[in-house]
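re: the backbone from monday

yeah here it is again, tokenized this time
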């Protein structure tokens, strides 16, 4: 457990609160971390796309914790594009693959029954079926993890560099 918490603090988010909450169920925690690692090692989807999607999902759910912390591995690369995903997505500031993935994350978070066949056609032009499944699985997991953080009104750890006393629901 301590190794995973150390990894959370230094490699994942620069904060231990999220992993610390899950560590109350050690077996499940190890499985969830293993699953999340699979996405960060994807052969098909760039880690930056996953981070942009994660942040859009956090915005959609007004998750204070998920909106505040950043994935350390891609923090610098993603920072210049963050403004393009908040509020109305700025398609011109993103690659086509980034735009489609972020839009999918937003739609699956807010109005999953309204995702159109036309949009899936556009998605299939940029992503393979395998990649689309990977995007959908990531989004679904992130939606659940956002709700986990919201239910706990998770705050950042005192030792992290992030602001604390987070307020839910989060508003930019």
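seq for it, each position gets an aa:
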């Amino acid at each position: 457990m301590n190794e995973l918490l150390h990894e959370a603090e230094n490699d994942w988010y620069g904060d231990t609160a999220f992993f610390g909450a899950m560590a109350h169920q050690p077996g499940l925690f190890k499985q969830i971390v293993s699953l999340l690692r699979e996405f960060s090692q994807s052969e098909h989807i760039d880690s930056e796309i996953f981070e942009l999607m994660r942040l859009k999902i956090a915005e959609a759910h007004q998750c204070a914790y998920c909106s505040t912390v950043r994935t350390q591995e891609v923090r610098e690369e993603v920072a210049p594009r963050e403004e393009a995903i908040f509020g109305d997505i700025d398609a011109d500031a993103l690659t086509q693959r980034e735009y489609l993935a972020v839009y999918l994350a937003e739609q699956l978070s807010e109005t999953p029954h309204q995702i159109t066949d036309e949009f899936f056609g556009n998605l299939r032009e940029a992503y393979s079926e395998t990649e689309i499944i990977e995007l959908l699985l990531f989004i679904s997991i992130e939606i659940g993890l956002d709700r986990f953080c919201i239910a706990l009104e998770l705050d950042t750890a005192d030792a992290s560099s992030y602001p604390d006393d987070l307020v839910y629901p989060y508003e930019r």
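The mean pLDDT is 94. The radius of gyration is 16 Å.
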